[in-house]
Design brief:
Layout: H1 2-21, H2 26-37, H3 40-50, H4 53-83, H5 88-113, H6 123-145, H7 148-155, H8 157-160, H9 165-168, H10 172-199, H11 211-222, H12 234-238, E1 266-270, E2 276-278, H13 280-284, E3 289-296, E4 307-316, H14 317-324, E5 332-337, E6 342-346, H15 347-350, E7 356-361, E8 364-365, E9 375-377, E10 390-396, E11 418-423, E12 449-456, E13 462-468, E14 476-477, E15 479-480, E16 490-496, E17 506-513, E18 535-538
Parallel strand pairs: 1-10
Antiparallel strand pairs: 1-2, 3-4, 4-7, 5-6, 5-10, 7-8, 7-9, 11-12, 12-16, 13-14, 13-17, 15-16, 17-18
Helix pairs in contact: 1-4, 1-6, 1-10, 2-4, 2-5, 5-6, 6-10
Length: about 550
């Protein structure tokens, strides 16, 4: 218990260094190693069921494991010092040195197993950041264990023989418990506040505005779409563009990467005529483009919450590539990111008008969670092909398999045509909409129950959405709202009269994209190509 409490001091200081100077944080590295080694199918299940909590729980587990290591080390150091008594100062320094060596070796091993991280942290920086927490651990541990008779034994063994054990040791366990409690009382709030800051970093207030978003909001205010007049469907319209704080986030990181804009730049390398290095002002000086686009995680279930839509502003990817000059034979565009992530997309996909490098989201600079300072928006491909925190673009003459693809996910990750019911019901996707708590439609009324939801098929667009109340034998068309763009989800609405049969009803929904492909009824798990099947609402 003493080692765990004093180890908390070391973890608290390591967290402060992580916050203040982006130092390596061992539990974060350990959780990253776990993600890197986890098979894609298993990780898909974790993300599918827990979402971001999968990575947060792994981080908490790594912190607990780190505390247990400190507890075991305390047992070792206590036994060693009992066998060979030494001064408080020497014991503390030896503890710090040995702990530093152990954690340095452990961290190097973790980094070697963690794809994309080993080359990003130098041994010098590891040593520099590990010393202070281990010094704090050593001195705090022996401050808790310290007793006067122990120190006198080192200074004058003959004098100590004359002391009564009851005089020096009877209260020692109580003193140790009290001191350990004080150490825990200091460490716990620091760890709590530090993790809160890392998991929810403060964002600077942005003064930028989105003309596209303003125009959309004005149109919605002036002319409501046909078929959506029922006020219970209002949350669909209000959050057709997902508020930034509700936008889903899935990536390989337990903690949000923090990028220093002052030192950041974008490199364009590989099969280009003119390799480029562009900083933030240079990128923002290029002709901007703004568009609505929906992103969805490949691990999303039908009706799941890992899907959102935003207004993105940035520059055409093809403009950046044009500045560099694309050589013949290029097959893939490879993105490399500040967190060690990498992914490749076909060159023809990157040259489309809809593929942009975005630096704003919903009228403000990208938040750290969503890729500050630069991320890719590649319509038609699942979210894993839309990398965040981009630092380098490389053009290559071969098919490239990125981080998730090396774990088994599809490299040709095109969105599946699908649809889901948001109102009424309790679909997980409701987390992306505000005001739904009061939108439950339990009373049918004379005109039937209003149903509404979304359909999405990537850049193929949605031709129609239909619902069925007889198990798919017959289908009723719904009313579609004009989409935000050719890259966004589409709202649909209808009314259903369910009074004919008082028993429970299952309402099915299916979509047809603009290529004529009908959403399949065949159920498949997200791994490796994305989920398929009908969304079914039970009334």
């Amino acid at each position: 218990m003493v080692g765990i409490c004093t180890g908390g001091i070391a973890i608290a200081i390591a967290l402060v260094l992580r916050l203040a100077a982006s130092g390596p944080f061992i539990p974060e590295i350990a959780s990253q190693t776990l993600f890197s080694l986890t098979p894609g199918a298993l990780e898909s299940q974790a993300v599918e069921n827990l979402g971001p909590l999968a990575k947060y729980s792994a981080l908490v587990g790594a912190i607990l494991a780190n505390l247990i290591v400190y507890g075991l080390l305390a047992i070792f150091f206590t036994r060693r010092s009992n066998r060979t008594p030494q001064s408080y100062l020497l014991n503390s320094l030896l503890c710090a040195i040995i702990s530093s060596i152990i954690f340095l070796a452990l961290t190097i091993a973790l980094l070697a197993l963690t794809e994309g991280q080993a080359q990003s942290i130098s041994i010098f920086s590891l040593v520099a950041y590990l010393i202070l927490p281990q010094l704090a651990y050593g001195f705090t541990l022996y401050a808790v264990l310290y007793n006067r008779s122990y120190e006198r034994t080192v200074q004058s063994p003959e004098l100590t023989k004359s002391l009564s054990p009851s005089e020096e040791q009877i209260d020692q366990p109580k003193r140790q418990i009290l001191r350990a409690g004080i150490a825990a009382a200091v460490a716990i709030p620091v760890i709590y506040l530090g993790l809160e800051s890392l998991l929810s970093p403060q964002r600077a207030i942005q003064n930028t505005k989105s003309l596209l978003l303003s125009q959309f909001q004005q149109r919605l205010k002036n002319i409501g779409p046909r078929g959506f007049e029922d006020p219970r469907l209002a949350p669909l319209l209000d959050s057709e563009v997902t508020p930034t704080d509700l936008f889903y986030r899935i990536d390989k990181n337990a903690l949000v990467p923090q990028v220093n804009l002052e030192t950041w730049n974008l490199k364009v390398t590989g099969l280009v005529n003119r390799p480029l290095t562009l900083d933030n002002p240079q990128i923002k000086s290029l002709v901007p483009v703004e568009q609505f686009a929906t992103l969805e995680c490949v691990s999303n279930k039908i009706g799941g919450e890992l899907i959102s839509t935003a207004a993105w502003k940035g520059v055409h990817l093809k403009d950046i590539l044009g500045m560099a000059g694309v050589k013949s034979g290029v097959k893939y565009i490879v993105f490399r990111c500040a967190d060690g992530y990498d992914v490749g997309i076909p060159i023809d996909r990157g040259l489309l008008d809809g593929s942009i490098l975005a630096y704003e989201m919903n009228g403000a600079s990208l938040t750290p969670e969503h890729g500050f300072p630069l991320r890719a928006i590649v319509p038609g491909l699942y979210g894993m092909m839309n990398p965040k925190w981009i630092t380098e673009i490389e053009l290559v003459d071969k098919i490239y398999e990125g981080y998730w693809q090396r774990k088994g996910w599809a490299n040709n990750a095109k969105y599946n045509t699908h649809s889901f019911i948001v109102i009424p019901g309790n679909a997980a996707v409701r987390q992306r909409f505000r005001g739904l708590q009061s939108s439950e439609t339990v009373n049918q009324g004379s005109e039937g129950i209003p149903f509404g939801g979304m359909a999405f098929a990537g850049d193929r667009g949605i031709l129609k959405v239909e619902v069925s109340t007889d198990g798919g034998t017959s289908w009723k068309p719904t009313i579609l709202k004009d989409p935000l763009s050719q890259y966004s989800w589409v709202l649909w609405a209808t009314r259903l009269d369910l009074k004919e049969n008082e028993s429970n009803h299952n309402v099915y929904v299916r979509a047809t994209d603009k290529t004529g492909k009908v959403q399949t009824a065949q159920i498949s798990d997200p791994f490796p190509n994305g989920a398929t099947g009908y969304y079914i609402h039970s009334t």
